[in-house]
TrEMBL record:
Full protein name: Mitochondrial fission 1 protein
UniProtKB keywords: Membrane, Transmembrane, Transmembrane helix
Stretches of the chain forming a coiled coil according to its record: none
Annotated TM spans: 138-160
GO CC, any one term: peroxisomal membrane
GO biological process, one term: autophagy of mitochondrion
Length: 162
């Protein structure tokens, strides 16, 4: 289990590095947006949405999911690529459960997809890290409350002795 966990952590960290390095420039996004608007073809729309799916802007990530989901519904030829792009955007948005579900859907049809496996493991690790962070926060809050109660009890005890 420890080895698998370490591998999962390494995969998440490596994927995060890849995603930072693959963020599209503002110029590229503008160029792809103009091309998509001009050509109005599924291919141009896909290229724009797939680039958006790696953006640093939350609004662009949400827009990418909307566009990519729309392409899937319209029967676009490269549906798995659309699903992967949407999963990537959801991962970057912090919606790890939905991103993971998309990866699982890809893996059901393409069980050997390395990129879907990596993103799937990264989603699991990110979700676990998020849960740990929430638990630490709750523990800190509980410790603060316990300390405040202790101080109040100490003060009450001092005041009762007077």
């Amino acid at each position: 289990m420890g080895e698998t966990k370490a591998t999962q952590e390494n995969i998440k960290d490596e994927l995060d590095r890849k995603l930072v390095l693959s963020r599209p420039s503002r110029e590229l996004l503008e160029e792809l947006a103009l091309t998509a608007a001009k050509e109005q073809s599924p291919q141009a729309t896909f290229q724009y949405a797939f680039a958006l799916s790696k953006s640093a802007e939350k609004s662009e990530l949400r827009y990418a999911v909307t566009i990519l989901d729309g392409l899937v519904k319209e029967g676009y030829e490269f549906q798995v690529d659309c699903m992967y792009g949407a999963a990537t955007a959801l991962y970057l948005l912090g919606d790890y459960d939905e991103a993971r579900a998309r990866c699982e859907a890809i893996l059901r049809t393409q069980p050997k997809s390395r990129i879907a496996k990596e993103l799937h493991l990264a989603c699991i690790e990110a979700h676990e890290r998020s849960e740990k962070k929430k638990m630490k926060k709750a523990a800190m809050a509980s410790a603060g409350v316990a300390a405040a109660i202790g101080v109040a009890a100490g003060l009450a005890s001092i005041m009762l002795k007077k």
